[in-house]
Amino acid sequence: MIKKQKSNTRRNPVRVKKPLSLKISHPPQPIGEVIYGVSEFNDEDAHYFREGNHFRLYEKLGAHLRMVGRKAGAHFAVWAPDAESVSVVGDFNNWNPGAHPLSSRWDSTGLWEGFIPGVPAGAIYKYHIVSRFHRQILEKADPYAFFCEMPPKTASVVSSLNYDWHDDEWIQNRYRFNDLNSPMSIYEMHLPSWRKVPEDGNRSLSYRELGPRLADYVQEMGFTHVEFMPVMEHPFYASWGYQVTGYFAPSSRYGSPQDFMYLVDYLHEQGIGVILDWVPSHFPGDLHGLMNFDGTDLYEHNDDKKGFHPDWKSYIFNYGRNEVRSFLISSALFWLDRYHADGLRVDAVASMLYLDYSRKEGEWIPNAQGGRENLDAIHFLKRLNEAVYKNYPGTQMIAEESTSWTKVSKPIHEGGLGFGLKWNMGWMHDTLEFFSKDPVYRKHHHNNLTFSMLYAFTENFMLSLSHDEVVHGKGSLLSKMPGECWQKFANLRQLFGYMYGFPGKKLLFMGAELAQGREWDHDSSLDWHLLGIDWHKGIQTWVKDLNHFYRNEPVLFQKDFTWEGFSWIDFSDTDSGVVSFIRRGATTPNVILVVCNLTPVTRYAYRVGVPAEGYWKEVLNSDAFKYGGGNQGNCGGVNADWITMHNQPYSLNLTLPALSVIFLKREF
């Protein structure tokens, strides 16, 4: 797995609202002394927290605006069991650690809390912590903060999560859109680099500006969902959000919590699902973050062989600590609860499952049974998926897991990890490897294209051509394609067509649909100007037509995870470079034939076996003129002949354009 750069279709009227200002102003009011004993964290909360089964900690810990008697203010609560003292410092008390000390609870939870009258929404704060053993003085951001200062500033911000949602209809019906038997075509995107505003210093779009633009584009292109690379607060922009410090806070770079809610709400109103990248595998060592939080290894392991990741120079969560498990699962449920996300894509699951992940002999500690499996992480992932599906039915949990670990996407009662879907990294690697070969050599690498069918139905797979494939010197998808210019574009069209015909849900990273020639750059906007060039516009049109066709043809999505939905016609004609297969659904007698000519030579009078007689309509052809092709094909369709072929009772006499994929549907 290539990891990111790290650091130390309903159309409703939509209310266009003015973006909320990030400028913070406090109403004039006196700041009172700390009031103790007003905690909402009761004995039952304490029990579940210590047990590792409290999954609503965001309702109890952090900073919450409250009324105590007639006094308005904020209640603060933080977990720091090895602290000698904890106080709240902020702009409301001149960052004076003696002004507002918190009180340690009488029980063994390790919580510190207190209510400070007069603290308003927008107040900036941190926790001033003195460690018990070494008297180390630390200033930490709130792990449960709902909002943070704009990086590079690092303080937390007292914030409300009040918002008037308008997506009730979507939430009630989203189970139909997230179901494994429904079409799922995901547009993965890095929010700040999708579109820039050149007339305003080339800044990124805000959450609210993004809503209408993104919704219109996704609807036009036919994607069912968007997947945002992590929006959680992160200090290092070039980590793309994968070095998280704010596990309950959307990045303030693009607006307030309510602004991000508006973005999700808007997309839902337009019938578009929202999946969030979520990172429980590691966290950065920034001084204001989770590392050494109370002067001890509170969230991480105390041994670098288990607690420090050698690849990413980051810290690994101690999944065996109950309170850490409560923290992480609370974070996951928080985004489904308060931000109405439709699912989470869990990053770097493979790194969590193996104690020796990216480590040499002697650099890792075996588990209690002497093995390399991280038993604590396995338990955590199962509890995570149980909690999500129990509390938010209709959502999806998606694993980025790059190894042959079995039953990642199978139910826990069947011995699985309990995810709903798993990225098919093997298919991605082998398919890109094949398509990058010059066609003259492809006959010797045919296995790359067909091998994945040996395991295609062992998991609920998602076919992903993600951001990981277009960074770190790997070039864009277009640049991977061999040949002259026309061949590069034809190969890319064929790659996308093969992907949409193949069993599995779909994911494309932004820019692929533009046939962007350069590698993705997080500092730059996508190259939208390329759409003025016919070949690039043709690729975009092809992806759009593939999406809409895919969504309207149940045979392409209803049986993605069983042999009932797929059968090879022929995968052995390596000399001609042709593969063909049939897709079947559950609710229609129709079948769709997919034929790929993987060579730059047009095949005339090429016979392909089919299971039924009658007229087979050519419903999609990647060589059509509007896609930038040579416009060769089968004149709209062909009649099946009573000639047996490929163990089928009938066959079609086809013209297969060079480097093309065609879809034929039998008409009744």
By secondary-structure content and strand pairing, the structural class works out as alpha/beta
Q: How big is the Rg?
A: 27 Å
The assigned CATH architecture of the largest domain is Alpha-Beta Barrel
Low-confidence stretches: 1-25
Tally of individual domains: 3
What distance lies between the first and last C-alpha atoms, to the nearest angstrom? 46 Å
Give the total of beta strands: 30
Question: Mind describing the biggest β-sheet?
Answer: 8 strands, parallel, barrel
The overall average pLDDT, rounded, is: 94
Number of helices: 14
Write a structural description.
The chain is α/β, with parallel strands linked by helices. The protein has three domains: 43-157, Immunoglobulin-like; 168-554, Alpha-Beta Barrel (TIM Barrel), CATH 3.20.20; 563-666, Immunoglobulin-like, CATH 2.60.40. It is built from 14 helices and 30 strands. The strands form eight sheets. It has an eight-stranded parallel barrel, surrounded by five helices. A six-stranded antiparallel sheet has the order 23-24-25-30-27-28. Strands 1-2-5-4 form a four-stranded antiparallel sheet, with no helix packed on it. A hairpin with a 4-residue loop joins strand 16 (308-309) and strand 17. It is elongated and about 90 Å long. The two termini are 46 Å apart. The relative contact order is 0.09. Residues 1-25 have low confidence and may be disordered.
